[in-house]
Design a protein that fits this description.
alpha+beta, Ribosomal Protein S5, domain 2, Alpha-Beta Plaits, 3-stranded antiparallel beta sheet, 10 strands
């Protein structure tokens, strides 16, 4: 079964900490591709154009990217990426916006601040397991509807919609690769009743 951990979509999860007068704002968002990551970064850059640094990390499957955005090398992007790795998250971007407070924090202080801000944003999020899925629609005689229901029982197949105008038309989703194959076979079988 193909699945992965990420956060819920269509919401941005936030955090904020203050360290020696520097303000760190964290943002975590589910993404599906690099274009979405870049669009989110652009949105934050426009919104926080007066910030000193906008550091980030994102993971999309095997692709990982991080940026220190002018902070000392390895003190911002890598710690954010490390937080994502420790939680085994993918299809996610975490951005930390820093407003400099006039006091230098040193490498250790920066590392802790970026790690804490990223962690807090994720702790405020809703981590969930995502599954690959396929939507199928089949049509068969109404008399075979009970047989269909029995055949999908216990298979991680969820009925989305049923229509009985011309026989039985059922739209359903199969949540994993094994059940997608079963659903496709089921579609073909039901059409031959």
């Amino acid at each position: 079964m193909e699945s992965y951990l990420s956060i819920t979509e269509n919401k941005v999860f936030t955090s904020e900490i203050l360290v020696n007068k520097s303000r760190f704002l964290g943002f975590a968002k589910h993404i599906e591709n690099q274009a979405e990551a870049e669009a989110f970064l652009q949105e934050l850059r426009l919104k926080f154009k007066d910030a000193r640094h906008i550091c980030y990390a994102y993971v999309l499957g095997n692709l990982a990217k991080a940026s220190d955005d002018g902070e000392p090398s390895g003190t911002a992007g890598k710690p954010i990426l490390s937080v994502l790795g420790k939680k085994s998250l993918t299809n996610i971007i975490v951005v930390v916006v820093r407003y400099f407070g006039g006091i230098k924090l040193g490498a250790g202080g920066l590392l802790r601040a970026y790690t804490t801000t990223a962690n807090d944003a994720l702790n405020n999020s809703q981590i969930c397991e995502w599954f690959s899925s396929k939507i199928c629609t089949i049509n068969f005689d109404y008399k075979d509807y009970e047989t269909f229901l029995k055949s999908i029982k216990g298979r991680n197949i969820i009925i989305l919609e049923t229509n009985f105008e011309n026989g039985a038309t059922v739209k359903f989703v199969a949540r994993d690769d094994e059940n997608i194959d079963k659903a496709q076979i089921l579609c073909k079988t039901m059409q031959h009743f």
